[in-house]
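Please check this today:
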Amino acid sequence: MNIKRTARGLVAATLTAAAVVAVPAYAHHSFSIFDASQTKTFTGVVTRVNPDANHLQIFFAPMNAERTNVERGPDGKPVIWAVEMAGSAASAQQGISVSEFPAGTVFTVSLHPLRSGDPAGAREGALYKCPQKAPAQAGGRVQWQPPPAGKNCDSVQGSVAIGTGFDPAQQAQQSQQARPAGGSN
């Protein structure tokens, strides 16, 4: 009898452990918050990178169409957008990291914006880093060469494509497949 009770306890403990592991994966936010029917492309200047384990985010100030300055809000402060992608480890495998995108980096990103209209979105496709200026042109400092007016970094000779992209629709489908089957005993 003790063996049966021990076996039942072991099965119950195993099922409980499996549920504890499955719930966070299921509870993670849905990518339905992003509008996959829209794609916006920005060329901007990195302000900071948040290397979160769940979703690496690059915060940036979009450049104006002339590519001479960043866009500013009514208060005169730079408008800041965020692009969300896979976690830090997965992003690093694609070459996207804090060290690869330091503040001041000029890059181009396409994203699916938030449905709420807030200035953020999920990355779509590769990121394109504009080339660095020659040290003599940049006064000895590290600076990036922005693209010509109306163009993006992918059109600049010497630009670098980094990453393969992030598809919210594919992520949603994978999340749906990972959900535990509902309720039979």
The beta strands are 40-51, 56-62, 81-84, 106-113, 120-129, 160-162. The chain has three helices and six strands. Residues 2-27 form the longest helix (26 residues).
